Amino acid sequence: MRTILIVLTLCLSLSTFAQRDKIKSLKVAFITEKLNLTEKEAQQFWPIYNAYDNTVSNLKYNEFGKVIHEIRENYATISDDKANELLDKALDIQTKIHSEEINLVKKLRNIISAKKILGLKNAEEDFDRKMFEEWNKRRRDRNN
């Protein structure tokens, strides 16, 4: 029984990593196309953007996720002191994310035009919206 559980967990983990890689590949293609990056721009852009994206994803989904989880789990019994501590953590994480965005723009200004930098935010939002729509569609299809 324990072996089956370990194998199942491993398979689910590999599936999750495969899905993450697939989504990441789709995002790279989507942003490259939307920004119309040249080969030279893409070579310089992607290492900087990937480092930014990894940092921000970690902040959003790991650190902020922990704060949200703790709030949801303990909201009914949380003290004002603990609520203030969690609020401060959330604000600190949001500040770090904002700082990462500022640093990204500073770095990208030497690589791509200001117009393409502005287009990046639109491309990210478009991609996220398309992913959310696809997720909703699949969820509806599964429930029908």
Characterise this structure.
The protein has 144 residues and is mainly α. It has one domain. Helix content is 90%, strand content 0%. It has four helices and no strands. It is flat and about 55 Å long. The two termini are 33 Å apart.
Structure keywords:
144 residues; disordered N terminus; single chain; 4 helices; mainly alpha
Q: Give the total of domains.
A: 1
What is the number of E strands? Answer: 0
Strand content: under 5%
User: What series of H and E elements makes up the topology?
Assistant: HHHH
Record the SSE blueprint:
Blueprint: H1 2-35, H2 39-74, H3 80-108, H4 114-143
Summarize the structure.
This protein is an all-alpha fold and 144 residues long. The chain has 4 helices and no strands.
